[in-house]
Write a structure and sequence with these properties.
This protein has 172 residues and is an alpha+beta fold. Helices cover 19% and strands 48% of the residues. The chain has one domain: Sandwich (Immunoglobulin-like). It has two helices and eight strands.
Amino acid sequence: MVDPISTGASAVTIADRLTALVRWVLRRPPPPSPRHRSLARPVHLGLEVRPIHYTLQLHRPVPTVEIELLAINYLAHPLSLREVKIMRFTAGGIPVAFDNIPLTHEVTVEPHSCFLISCERPLADSETRVAAENAQHGFGGAVNITARGIARGKEVSFAATALKIDGRVMSR
């Protein structure tokens, strides 16, 4: 035979537990919303490299492409930049892309600061010809950047694609 007091007590216990669960769920703060990330800034892990300005110098005896960048160290320790490379650079109306433009010299960026750096390389004859044929005085472009540095013995890297850059072509 079923004991009605026992059955009633079990039902009250279950109802009490359900009530406590509902109160707990309602009292909990809502989960934090994911951070709204800006679509214009790439994600970094202590190192960020931003394009500043480019110059195509076609009037020199050895024509060059030079790209100025801002290396930003968000870390609390000095960062030794070992490699910064422009993987691909396109300049406005010039139909040729300039690839593999290396850092001119290694630098150390102090903690929580930035440093102006440059990547430069001579142009091939074919690149110079195409750039001279389509030269305008100034226009926008885009760069793909990879960077690698060392901070406290650990490697820190940065990569970004299609970052906007403005600059000029010096043909005379």
